Structure formats: C-alpha cells, structure tokens
Amino acid sequence: MTDVATTAAEHTRRDFLFIATGAAGAVAAASAIWPFVSQMAPDADTIAAGAPVEFDLTPVAEGQIVKLFWRGKLIFVRHRTKTEIKSAVETDVASLRDPEADAVRVKAGKSQWLVVYGNCTHLGCVPLGNDGSFNGWLCPCHGSVFDTSGRIRQGPAPTNLPVPPYEFVSDQKIRIG
What we know:
By secondary structure, this protein is α+β, with helices and mostly antiparallel strands. The chain has one domain: Rieske Iron-sulfur Protein. It is built from four helices and ten strands. Strands 5-6-7-8 form a four-stranded antiparallel beta sheet, with no helix packed on it. It has a three-stranded antiparallel beta sheet with strand order 1-10-9, with no helix packed on it. The longest helix has 26 residues, at 13-38.
C-alpha cells in the first residue's frame, strides 16, 4: 500500500469552493452597493437642464429675433441691422437708468448679434420684439421699453435685460452656458 500525500502545489476541491464562494460574495456585495453609489449622480434631466446650448446663427435674417430656451429660461438672439447698431452705440450712456455701453453687451467684432434673457426685469413678463419707441422690446403688461441693445429706456423695469454667459464657437455658431 502506498500513502498518497497531497502537496501545497496541488489544488483541491476545497480550494476551488473557497475561491468560488469569495468571488460570488464579492459580486453580491458590489450588486448591493451599486444602487447606493449610482443614486448620488445627477439624473439626465438635471444634466440636460444645465448643459450648454449651441445655436447656429446662419438662418437668422438681419433684423430678426429668435427665441430659445437654456436652463428653462427664455433667451432672445437678435441679428441687429447697421441702423440698430448705430443707434445703440450713439446713445448717451449717462442718460440711461441702468448705464451700460453697447460694447459691453455684445462680443467684440460681433456687434450685429445681441444675446439677452427674454424676460422683463420688472415682473418677468415676455416683451415683444421690434416694438416700442426705440424699436427694441416693449413689455405689453406694464409698459417697459427696451432699446435695440436691451437697455431699459422707459417704464417700471429697474435694469437692462441681462446678458447670459455665451461665446462664439465659430463665426456662425454660439454656445450659451
């Protein structure tokens, strides 16, 4: 009769069961922890609400105002005519209720494009474009009048239409946000 002794180099059924049980336990622990980790990430609606919006300016005709939404807020993109730009630049800033030069409200070299939030700064109404005594915007609810640079000229609104954060990514495309 020969005695068979197992050596440390041989793998037994017990070693296999030990490794398989450990692996199954690790998978179970990861499966239990995953929902807790994933719920800490923002949902798709939140990501989409804060994401930058790119807008192609090519189809916007001169003199036209386009409305779009970013983060649930109305944005006006206005393609100003040379006359509108000249009028906005020549306005005496000292005579304005909220003094701000036209050059501060547009990007250098792109003065034909004005991008502003689309709600009146008085009570949040949506002003009508290409209207009012300055041919900018007129708030039909309370009579605030904004010029072609979005600056308050008449009425109860306390400040100019705000300019959102935006940049030109090419000559005919802007990114808001």
